[in-house]
Fold this protein.
Amino acid sequence: MNAQPHAAPAPVGGSLFNATTLVCGVLIAVMVTIILVRLFFGLASTTNVNDGYSWGIWVVVDVFIGSALACGGFCMALLVYIFNKGKYHPLVRPALLGSLFGYTLAGAAITFDLGRWWNFWHIFWPGYFNVNSVMFEVAACITLYIIVMWIEFSPVFLEKMGLRDARRKLEKVLFLFIALGVVLPMMHQASLGTMLVVMGGQVHPLWQTPMQPLIYLLSAITLGYGVILFESCVAASAYRRQIEVSMLNPMARVMLGIIAVFLLVRFTDIAVRGVLGEAFQPTYIALTFWIENACLIAPLLLIGTVAARRNPARLFLAGIAVMLGGILLRLNGFLIAFDTGPGWSYFPSVPELLVTIGIFAAEILGYIIITRRFPVLPREETYALPARS
Amino acid sequence: MHTEVTTTPADENSRRKFLKGCVNAAGAAVTAGTVSSTVEARDTYQRPPEALGLLYDATLCIGCKACVAACKRANDNPAEFSTADKLWDTPLDTSGYTFNIIKMYRSGTMSTKDDESNGYAFMKTSCMHCADPSCVSACPVTAMTKDPRTGIVAYDPEACVGCRYCVVACPFGIPKYQYDSPTGKIGKCELCRHRYQEGHYSACAEVCPTGATLYGRTSDLLIEARRRLALKPGSTTIYPRGNLSGGQDQSYEGYVGKYQQHIYGETEYGGTQVLKLSAVDFEKVGMPYLAPKSSASTSETIQHTLYGGLLMPFAVLGAMTYVARRNVHHEDDASAQEAGKESS
């Protein structure tokens, strides 16, 4: 992780106490309280999950969507280290940081949704784990990836602590972790799609297909780049820094290419399975299907040209559209277009929502603390003043 | 405000490397694909020859719910209330504490039993003990198991992590979780396997007064079901009660119902060990249409194709390691010369 050719990463600096961090702190405290209530009184005390919709937003949003939104790190590693596009190097660390928090919190979130969480270690224990289970593959892969990411990111901490020797030693073998950091997310992001397959006819035919692993993998990659567009714009605005358009512009083009492949696969699959007619029924299912796909078609129109991609506002909007498309793909498959039979319904309770909000608050707070105190974002030579807090 | 990097020879160079990277990665993917194509598709499992199960004949059911009460007692489950006075057990559906229930189909005036229009009918809801269960395939920690001999789908709370993938995966909505408890378990019918040693069999079949729920080997039950479908509606026949594959004879003579010519569970998802007969269309009484190919087999075929023997992951990892090693190293060398150039 030598970023010497570009502006070296440096701490942003500034105070850790401001309105944003304070709000995040309060939201995290609320989340912790609700989690304690859940642990002492059971899932029904805080959530609306039921036997018809046993997976609520703590699984679908915190874990499935949260981890997909955390694909930025893997997507940048793919560009920089696998396709050797060194010019994107300054984006790697901030993206990896976002992924680190996204995944670590997704991993933490699943433990308090587990009904018998004290048995969690069974997932890694020979004699217990079931290699036929898609859930096993996802759980094992995500756990490994979280460990790999902390190792990938550790040069940042070693740098800060002045442990140069340790850092140099680690960097000699870092390529191995970088490779793992590309393969592991490809595996489990694909498997998150495969998780729908065993549910059979309960999942609407527009989302029930053996092609799910490919669709989810492509979607996760588009999300990775979409999130980087979003994050870069937000970080630039919050810290009053320049937007890295020189890097975001060509990266957005890569994203558009993958979106095009995604749409091709998605619609070919639907047509080949002969369920295209389902998309033209007067139902809310068809509506949500089209909103999901419109979110992915929108970036092609918003930032289709080089000139449009120089416009930070358009890049930002395209990033949001891609994120919404990926979020809806997952919400639709696991909740909205999931029908377990008559009589069942689900909408998250307020405590349930507050926990999910708390998780995102924890991600934001972690990002602020680390970028202000550790060398993550590229140093700004021209106006390297720390942002006002 | 924002700057664009113009194309430089260095960029051309990196484009060439980019293409090289693509070729490498594609090569690895193809290799991995060829290796893993030898992994065979996982067929839908069939019932073991000695499989145990139930035959539920809705035309014989009188809706007395003796089976619901017996199931409660056999499994030590608490009563559940759906009425204000809370006088006795009145569950409306199976739950983490109710493993068996009789549901009612109602149409119009409800004047005749087993009539699809202006009639009513009963249907038992409990575990079907699938030949190829989705819950067993879904469970990450082998808490759901299928006995290789009896085929009973059993649950082990000591192994369970409570992820509830079984709840989501089951097409019949059978495994249910105890949401009101901090140490909640999954609850489902296990065909009273814990009572076999005391010489008992499934409590629901033991107490059924009309033989609507009949216990036995599924192969025997299937023959009995076929026999009934071949009978002339309105004629009389002998109906066994209790345990078809052993025990004392409790049979009686009764009238033959107007059966749908379909044994539910004969082929659904590769077959189930609990079989059902009904006079009313199965989908109308809550039994979903299921293809003969199980979703577990589709899911596991995908998993084994992608991850069988970890061949594909290691092939891709090898390729990625090779490429990453070159590229990370390359950056180290190039750092000095590129540092000066990219000052824009």
Summary: Chain A touches chain B through 82 residues (CB under 8 Å). The radius of gyration of chain A is 21 Å. The mean pLDDT of chain A is 91.
